Amino acid sequence: IMLDNSVLNVGLPTIAAALHADTAQLQWVVTAYSVTFGGLLLTAGNLADRVGRRRGLVAGLLVMALGSLSVLVVADAGWLAVARAITGIGAAFVMPAALSLLYVSFTGDERPTAMGLFMTVSMLGFVVGPLVGGLLLEHVGWQWLFLLNVPVAAVTIPVVLARLHESAEPTAE
Q: Once rounded to an integer, what is the mean pLDDT over residues 123-150?
């Protein structure tokens, strides 16, 4: 999620040129993700608590991957902003579901270690995003800034389904 957010910044000039986007349109490309992610975070987390955290994580990963794949068919910055909004919706499910699953899967001394590792990897994604973005722009093109979520989902979903048990709290408030 953090990589997905930070990788975009280095690509804005290239995206602007490719899609003939002005500053306001680029702002929506950036903001659409943040608005849907932040706006739905509590609701998505509560829903995942009620219907199943593993289910919420897998659904969020699928939505993120589909939003990311849709970048292959966007024709302008408006549609790219819609794709980013869809990706943000998926991220709103992934973040709280992942944290909840970590919390219920680990106990005792393992829990702080697991949470610390989660936060370290998250921050690492934020830090290396611009570097990864620059490499992708130099070698393959701006669409790959968004397509990063697809292999992540392709690897993560089978692992989640095989290794994690469902966890829910139907009366979560």
A: 92
In this structure, which amino acid lies at residue 43?
Answer: T
Other beta carbons within 10 Å of 50 = 15
Q: Residue 75 corresponds to which tokens in the numbers above?
A: 């024709």
Handedness of CA 41, 99, 69, 47 (dihedral sign): negative
Taking residue 104's Cβ as centre, other Cβ atoms within 10 Å add up to 15
pLDDT of residue 4: 83
Contact 167, 101 (CB under 8 A): yes
| pTM value > 0.85 | yes
Q: Which residues lie closer than 8 Å to 129 by C-beta, 6 or more apart?
A: 2, 3, 4, 5, 6, 7, 8, 9
What does the alpha-carbon distance between residue 140 and residue 11 come to, in Å, rounded to a whole number?
A: 12
Residue 4, class by beta-carbon neighbours within 10 Å (0-12 exposed, 13-18 middle, 19+ buried)? buried
Element (H, E) at 88: helix 77-105
- Residue 94 tokens read as 């992934």
